[in-house]
Amino acid sequence: MGLPAGSRLGPFEILAPAGAGGMGEVYRARDTRLDRTVAIKVLPAHLAGNPERQQRLEREARAVSSLNHPHICALYDIGHQDGIHYLVMEYLEGETLAQRIGKGTLPTEQLLRWAIEIAGALEKAHRMGLVHRDLKPGNIMLTKEGAKLLDFGLAKPTVAAPAAELTTMATTSKPLTAEGTIVGTFQYMAPEQLEGKEADARSDIFSFGAVLYEMATGRKAFEGKSQASLIAAILAAEPPPITKLQPMAPPALSRVVKTCLAKDPDERWQTAHDLKLQLEWIAEGGSLAGVPASVVARRKNRERIFGVVALAAMVAAVLLGVLYFQRAPSEARAIRAYIKPAANSSFLFTGQPSGFALSPDGRRLAYVASAPDGRTLLWIRPIDSLQAQPLAGTEDVSYPFWSPDSRFIGFFAGGKLKKIEASGGPPLTLCDAPLGRGGTWNREGVILFAPTVNTPLHRVSASGGATTPVTTLDLSKNETTQRWPYFLPDGRHFLYVAGTPFAPKENPTNAILVGSLDSKESKLLLYTHSNAIYASGHLLFLRQNTLMAQPFDPRHLELTGDAFPIADPVQEDESTIRSIFSASQDGLLAYLEGTSGGDRQLIWVDRSGKKLGEMPGTGSYFAPRISPDGKRLTFTLPSSGFDVWSYDLARGVKTRLTFGSASAQANQNAVWSPDGRWIAYTSIRGGKFGLYQKPSDGSGSEEVLLEGIYQSRFPSDWSPDGKLLAYQGARQGILSIWMLPLSGERKPYPFLSSQFTEILPAFSPDGKWVAYCSNESGELKVYVVPFPGPGGKWQVSPGGGYTPRWRRDGKEIFYLSSDNKVMAAEVKASGTSFEVGAVQPLFETRPSRTVINGSYDVTADGQRFVIAYEAGQPTAAITLVVNWPAEVKK
After folding, report:
1. For residue 842, how far is the Cα from the chain centroid?
2. Gap between the Cα atoms of 107 and 218, Å rounded
3. Pairwise CA distance, residues 768 & 787, whole Å
4. Are 553 and 493 in contact (CB under 8 A)?
5. Catalytic residue chosen out of the listed positions 134, 274, 819, 857
6. pTM for this entry
7. What residues form DSSP beta bridges with 516?
8. DSSP 3-state of 312
9. Cis peptide preceding 372, ω within 30 of 0
10. Which of 111, 290, 448, 461 has the highest CB neighbour count under 10 A?
């Protein structure tokens, strides 16, 4: 029996029925408190007494309430009265998508607009851990504000139906949403749902593909005369292509829908975000997205004619070539040239984002550079051209690598491994990679990559999906990381570097190994301090700053001759143990000249960026920190290893505080105690990361704060009361923020730990807030949370940002933007509330791109900045060598 008009559920007055379904009855109602119209959904009578249904309604309502998205119907409240359990939702005026499709097929422009909105709603829900499970045109409302997705989570079955029940469904008299059967609307369910398997986000993508198909054609993707025949169609049949039913439809849309409707979940788009990007690309006219299939067919006919003409020209060219090469051969020579960045842009070579890679066919160079608008993008430059083009959608890209056919580029961005066509188009997310450290791609469609620091290598399909480890860290050999894989020609074996960052160059302990996709066994090739690749029959690797080539037999996996130099000097990114060079398989070599960061300066600037002074000399400086009294400066400097130094600003005297190189240690990242009497730092000993402290004047012995482990740890800040040390540490390969009590048992505990990278914590001067960086939105941004918590969270940086620093009065937070600007954000804290005011750039600089270690600091009054400045970075060029194997004869 329905609810009569005028009855009440709490403060909500029932006005009229609005609809009904298997899981609920919907009423139009008035919120008497706010005088607004709402929708009330109640459990129908046959389910009202079911405690399990009631609990599910309440549990999932709490989850849906977190979905704040313009294209998801908002949930306002939940309650129960007189045995009636109900939800209070946004009241929507309009028509359902099912009603609109009944009027005829949709114009392409309108279809894409609504589809993008629905995909955005799905993306939000999936990121919050919710799967719709009943996506259909009837659950999509079309309003003046756009498409709205309804009934999130309510169709989730308590127990999945076993596959055996499929044989009896044709004769069952129960509705499809009844107890004990599959929940959902049949025509839109994914094959795995019909087989009784657990549905996930990819099941929604299948359903969305069926909805898109119906939007474009006016016909359901799968139909049958009975439930059994409909099941068979969904499990095995392929619907006719959209372009066959609607010749004027964009071919790219047909391809997108076909991928959505793949029977195997691994073959579909893996995330709603990727699907949304595809639809946006089609809407923007990407490639031939908007060209009707009939037009494409006519173009193909013209191309066949042109092909005949081209074939005749090619035959003539071959004949001329034969005559040409019958001449006496001339001696091959290596040719060197420089490649400069596009106008108003700058290469990024070290840290993140950065990197470049030659395509395997030697025709194109992919590189990372800042665009004129300050964004960091992936650029593609043909070797035979002076022009380069940025690829949209590749912001904050790092470490690009090519597919073996030179068509696609893999890269890391926003904590993900992605790929993009070299000719352009939307990038596709393949899997998580919180701090990616290199990838390689074989002809079988396998990508091998390092997802983060302190993990073995993993593999993933080039179409995306689940990842699996391929190698194993050998802790007995002090391996804390394996990275920079490179496939050998057979596509089964691969090179990689294993060891630890900051290993000494003079007596290298990092190793180049050969691994296999078919075995966990590995073979040692040689010891060096950074990565190696295979090209033109040789192993290429760095020895000190000299690029060496050594003959290598990829069949027997053996070095077969002596190593010889081919380029000097070549830079290395020491913090990531990566040599900055690339090579194609046809004798092309590209590298960055110079020594590894040796031209950095420690400079002082004011808020306008005006240079005020510098510390004499240059070096590989990083992690500068100013003492609390402003009289001294600490920094890390390689000295036959890595050590912490201090600099007396008044006397101009440098003092070495740690002495790790003699015992194969690497000491770095010092932070000051609040009274300036102590420094705490990371010391890497035997491959293990430990935390230590010692007097800041270097007079006393060091003390162990936290024993070493094979997972990275770097101190970031000391609490104002001196009781806690905040540090970033790896947890299952993902960097998170930890607190170490400096008294008592000194048992560390996680402060911020999630599936996202969370780094660089900084205490507010009063110790009540912590600023930090997280990539939860896709790129590193600065946030603030209360300490010790719990409480809200405030985003400080509108765009990318890292290394937050507080002004001593707590009224400003400084940070470095992703486009190399020092930013200042006005902030105000009051009790448990926090406000972020104006955010403005102070000046542009070229800091060392060492995100984890930090590359600047600010005085207590916020008026002066010390920066580890990359003096030569803006004008640097890539050295290109054509036919480098000619050096072998010399």
Report:
1. 28
2. 11
3. 5
4. no
5. 134
6. 0.59
7. 493, 519
8. helix
9. no
10. 448
Residue pair 85/52 in contact by the 8 Å Cβ criterion:
no
Nearest of 476, 570, 562 to residue 531 by alpha carbon = 570
Place of tokens 């790092």: 398
Radius of gyration of the chain (CA): 31
Residue 568 annotated to the active site? no
* CA gap 599, 444 in Å, rounded: 43
The dihedral sign for the CA sequence 43, 45, 46, 47: positive
What DSSP designation does 455 have?
Answer: -
Structure tokens at 111: 């279809």
Nearest-angstrom CA–CA distance, 530 and 704: 29
Q: 751 — phi, psi (to 5°)? A: -100, -45
Cβ contact 887:587 at 8 Å: no
pLDDT by 10-residue block (mean), the chain, 890 residues: 84 86 78 88 70 66 74 85 84 90 85 94 87 89 90 49 33 33 70 86 94 92 86 91 84 92 92 91 64 44 46 49 48 80 82 88 92 83 90 90 95 91 91 91 96 90 93 82 95 93 72 93 92 95 92 94 91 86 93 72 92 83 92 82 87 88 70 96 84 92 88 91 93 83 93 88 96 85 93 91 94 88 94 93 74 80 90 69 78
Residue 43's nearest CA partner among 186, 204, 196, 177 is 177
Task: Report how far residue 467's alpha carbon sits from residue 486's, in angstroms, rounded to the nearest whole number.
Answer: 18
In whole angstroms, what is the distance from residue 507 CA to residue 495 CA?
A: 21
Q: What is the dihedral of CA 40, 41, 47, 50, to 10 degrees?
A: -80
Question: Do the beta carbons of residue 20 and residue 26 sit within 8 Å?
Answer: yes
E strands in 474-568 = 481-487, 493-499, 511-516, 519-527, 532-535, 538-543, 546-553, 558-559, 564-567
Task: Record the tokens describing residue 159, joined without a space.
Answer: 């127990």
| 301 CB-side CA count, 13 A | 5
Closest-CA residue to 594 (of 573, 575, 576, 563) = 573
Say how far apart CA 244 and CA 678 lie, in whole Å: 74
Phi/psi for 125 (5° steps) reads -65, -45
Which of 32, 110, 40 lies closest to 75, judged by CA?
Answer: 40
Peptide bond into 790 cis (omega under 30): yes
